[in-house]
Amino acid sequence: xxxxxxxxxxxxxxxxxxxxxxxxxxxxxxxxxxxxxxxxxxxxxxxxxxxxxxxxxxxxxxxxxxxxxxxxxxxxxxxxxxxxxxxxxxxxxxxxxxxxxxxxxxxxxxxxxxxxxxxxxxxxxxxxxxxxxxxxxxxxxxxxxxxxxxxxxxxxxxxxxxxxxxxxxxxxxxxxxxxxxxxxxxxxxxxxxxxxxxx
Length: 199
Known about the structure:
By secondary structure, the protein is mainly β. The protein has helices at residues 60-65, 122-125, 157-162, 180-189, and strands at 8-15, 19-23, 36-39, 42-50, 53-57, 76-81, 100-110, 113-119, 133-136, 139-146, 150-155, 173-178. The two termini are 14 Å apart.
C-alpha cells in the first residue's frame, strides 16, 4: 500500500522488455530485495540492488496496463516506498495497481498553479468524481472537474517541481489508478458480493 506522496524522482539507467534498473538516492536508505516500490504509480518488487540503484521486473500484465514500456534510459520516474504503519497518511490509500492510462490534453497556467486535463476511457471515468481522489503516475491528487471523457487536476508548484508531472507535456501518457472505494461500491451495489476483484 502507498499514499501517493512521491518521495523522489529516480532515473532509468537500464531497461529491457522484462526489467528496469533505476538510479535513486533517498529510497535506497532502507530498500531491500522483495520490497514493494511504486514506480510511476505501478507497484513493483525490488529484485536486485546495487549501491545507488535497484532493479524491478516487469511482466506483460504490467506493460499492458501502464506506460512503463514506453520508458527510455535517462527518463525520470516517480518513486515511493510502501507505507509504514503508524505513519501519517498524507495522500490517500493507493494500491499501486494501475487501472489504465490517460493522455494529457491540456496544460494551462493559472497564477501560481497549473490546470492539467487528461483524456480517459469510459471504463475509468465512471470511478472518478469531482473533489475525489485520483492517482496520476503515482501522485495522489484531487479531481477538480470530470466528465465521461476527461478529468482535470490543479498542480501546485511543489508537485510540479518534485514529480514527473512537471516534465510532461500535452500528448504524453500517464498511469491512472482510480479510488478503490468506488470499485468496492460498484461491486456491492450490483448485488454480487462474491469474488470482488481489486484490479
